[in-house]
Amino acid sequence: MTPGTFLTPDKSFMNLMNIDPFRMLNRPTRLFNDPFTMFRPLLAGEETMPMMAWTPPCDIYETDKEVVLKMELPEVKKEDVHVTVEHNLLTIRGERKFEEKVDRENYHRIERTYGEFMRSFTLPTYVENNKIVADFHDGLLMLTLPKKEEARPKQIEVKVN
Length: 161
Fold this sequence. Notes:
By secondary structure, the protein is mainly beta.
């Protein structure tokens, strides 16, 4: 495993991300009622929303001394976020709860996704699992995963004879 590639998404999964959710049918029965639905543009007021689970976005980068993971968790409370490491598998779980202050009947539109989420990442062997630091501030979870000393790059002086 080469450094920097352990958290790269699978290309077959990335192809799923190219789906245009606005071309989806808003009711499965429409296909049978109007067979040309897929070939005509959506009419005004005929928006649809894809049905998908909430997956918080995350950035991962690597420095000489550590691997850093930043995950956006807006409106998630610190006590609703759980980070675990077991057998080189980093798992982040949590939940964004729907505001109970306003009745759902009073909403005109609900586009943000609520509920539980879970993301898992396989850690490389050069990360010190027992020294991971998690910081949560303003809806941003930042995990610092320090590298083992032997995995860090070293400068070697070249002598001329």
